[in-house]
Amino acid sequence: MIKKIATQMENMKYITRIVIKGVSGYGPADEAYNDKVTITPTSISYEYKPLYESELNPSRKWSYKTNSPIFRMMYDKVAGMLPAIIERGIQEFCTDIGGIEYTITYSDKTKFKEIYWGPRDYFEELFVAIKRMVPETEYTPVVLLTSEDFDDEEDEE
Question: For 68, what's the count of Cα atoms within 13 Å in the CB-facing half-sphere?
Fold first, then answer.
């Protein structure tokens, strides 16, 4: 029995890397961008590339590596949320917003890749969990921003 359980555990695949890419949607070219968040059990990194770099829209890049068990716990929470996102099968198609591309790499090196064409709010619970992993000294990755982030700014006025 123990040997059977050990064999099943060896055959279970787990998520080793999560990449979430975003792109700007319809709008002025000087505000257009691509960005990417990459998360592993021990790291998070971000890259923001504007179509036209300027003082108001600079490129940004950072990475954070850790062996913290708290970070690992947060990663496991995010990885545990992904199957429900994938299985949700969002069929919405919006032409005025950019797509959100998920690339999930598993321990057996297989990958899942899908682009969702819908508002970021569809993924709010997941994005809130990932935002907690972002170092406080860094800007929140654009791909993770939801209407909640913008509602706070309006409330302050």
Answer: 11
Does any domain span residue 116? yes
Give a yes or no: residue 17 inside a domain. Answer: yes
Q: What is the pTM of this model?
A: 0.83
Question: Which amino acid is residue 97, in one-letter code?
Answer: I
Identify the domain containing residue 40 by its residue range: 12-151
DSSP 140: P
Whichever domain contains 106, its CATH number is 3.30.1560
Note the helical H segments in 55-123: 69-88
Residue from 111, 122, 127, 124 nearest 35 by CA: 127
Domain total in the chain? 1
* 8 vs 122, more confident: 122
Give residues with Cβ within 8 angstroms of 98, minimum separation 6: 22, 23, 24, 25
